[in-house]
Amino acid sequence: MTEMTPTTLWPQNNRTGCKFDSQSGAVTVYIISQFICLFGLLGNSIVLWFLRLFIRKNPIIPYIFSLALADAAYLLCCLVIAWCLPILILFKVELSSYSTGLYLLTVISVERCLGALCPFWYRFRRPEWVSSAVSIGLWSLAILQSGLSIFFLWERSVNRKIDKAINAFNLLICTPVMILSSLTLFAKVKCCSHPQNQPGHLHMTILLTVFFFVLCAVPLSVMTLFREYVNGFPGIFYLLASVNSSINPAIYFLVGCHRERWFREPLLLILQRALKEEKDSKRYVQLQLMLDSRLGPATFTTSESLHYW
């Protein structure tokens, strides 16, 4: 681990502290990253505040809520670490928050891909409790990983092996699955982009979220995995990681806001629109009739099912 500087923003040799160099570029990156973390923490807090009201009304909401919580935890760790508190455990909490966000995005991408490829199963067969259970399981996995790393914190060789295994799992397994699922979803959306069968806001929100994660967070993950062969970490990688954890609320706003009514709609309405999937009514009715023919009349109406919220 390296000393905390605007150039590296990473602990080294188990030492922490603030030794800021005089390079204007490094100081600029440091200041920008701090402002990004503050605004990102505010944005994710607003998202958490609104989503707490609807966490049981939409199968995607538990994932988005957990993702906002993981991003907020990551940004909070970045802010605390930047102010030179000598707590090495914070770096493990930061890694845990990053891993949780990656796992959640992977699951979201896979689920939406399955929903696009197998709409009948996803709409009618998927249990309602799956989202909450999976979110809890992913948090537990990330906490277990960081717990093992903290337990062996003072055994340097073991600690490095654990961190390397976690980073390898994140980069070589979860990231390719997330990218492949997102590309499949994108291809499906493009193929079904008929005027009468528009993809809806939710797919656009997810694709943009994954795109910025790959663009901003994956480079830092690559550098972390191969840090034994790198002499120091450019501060720009940590700046990009901060952007990734801060940009999701902005994505929700841009996707959910009507262009002709900028800043004139309630934030709750914008968030609802960004996370709502607009379904093709004809296709939905066909699936409903197919289900009725197999299992009998459904216990809910089409008008009720068309609304997630």
TrEMBL record:
Cell wall biogenesis/degradation: is it a keyword of this entry? no
Q: SUPFAM superfamilies, from UniProt? A: Family A G protein-coupled receptor-like
**GO terms for cellular component:** plasma membrane
Domain of life from the UniProt record: Eukaryota
Question: According to Swiss-Prot or TrEMBL, what is its membrane topology?
Answer: Multi-pass membrane protein
Which PANTHER family has this protein been placed in? G-PROTEIN COUPLED RECEPTORS FAMILY 1 PROFILE DOMAIN-CONTAINING PROTEIN-RELATED, MAS-RELATED G-PROTEIN COUPLED RECEPTOR
Please give the family membership noted in the entry: Belongs to the G-protein coupled receptor 1 family. Mas subfamily.
Full protein name: G-protein coupled receptors family 1 profile domain-containing protein
Organism of this sequence: Varanus komodoensis (Komodo dragon)
Per the UniProt record, the lineage of the source organism begins with: Eukaryota, Metazoa, Chordata, Craniata, Vertebrata
